[in-house]
């Protein structure tokens, strides 16, 4: 009998959390993630450049995604971006019962993580960490986390 403890976990799960590391999981999740991100960028009146930057793809790839001509698989980072954006979108719709949910990301914000930028610009400039902070900020405003 060995005293060695296995620290290995399934490639796609760490402590019960989705990690997006497995190719099969990423392939399975890509379609739904893209559909959601396309819809939220449209709801936020985002430009092609903003949509591409938020998802972490080139503008030409964004154009192919929008037209349904892209058959790739999102990377772990891109799925993390999509997840954070979907969380922000959902949180805003739980926080606001009117069109403010879709207008808020385009409004200049004096909140501590936005530095007088719009949340969209702050998330583009700050990448994944700022997207996650924005999601936590929204959850905090609505009394969530």
Topology, please?
Blueprint: E1 13-14, E2 17-18, H1 23-43, H2 48-55, H3 59-67, H4 76-95, H5 100-103, H6 119-141
Antiparallel strand pairs: 1-2
The radius of gyration is: 17 Å
Strand line-up across the major sheet: 1-2
Please, how many domains? 1
Query: How many strand units?
Result: 2
Distance, first to last CA: 44 Å
Which features does this protein show?
145 residues; mainly alpha; two-stranded antiparallel ribbon; 2 strands; globular
Structure commentary:
By secondary structure, this protein is mainly alpha-helical. It has one domain (18-141). 59% of the residues lie in helices and 3% in strands. It contains six helices and two strands, in the order ββαααααα. The protein has helices at residues 23-43, 48-55, 59-67, 76-95, 100-103, 119-141; strands at 13-14, 17-18. It has a two-stranded antiparallel ribbon with strand order 1-2. Strand 1 (13-14) and strand 2 form a beta hairpin. The longest helix has 23 residues, at 119-141. The model is unreliable at 1-12 (pLDDT under 50).
Short description, anyone?
The protein is mostly helical.
């Amino acid at each position: 009998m060995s005293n060695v403890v296995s620290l290995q976990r399934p490639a796609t799960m760490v402590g019960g959390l989705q990690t997006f590391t497995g190719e099969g999981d990423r392939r399975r999740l890509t379609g739904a993630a893209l559909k959601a991100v396309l819809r939220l960028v449209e709801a936020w009146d985002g430009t092609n450049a903003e949509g591409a930057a938020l998802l972490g793809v080139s503008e030409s790839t964004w154009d192919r995604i929008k037209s349904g001509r892209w058959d790739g698989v999102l990377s772990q980072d891109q799925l993390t971006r999509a997840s954070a954006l979907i969380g922000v979108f959902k949180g805003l719709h739980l926080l606001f019962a009117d069109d403010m949910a879709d207008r808020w990301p385009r409004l200049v914000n004096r909140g501590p993580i936005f530095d007088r930028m719009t949340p969209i610009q702050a998330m583009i400039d700050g990448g994944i960490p700022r997207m996650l902070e924005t999601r936590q900020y929204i959850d905090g405003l609505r009394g969530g986390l």
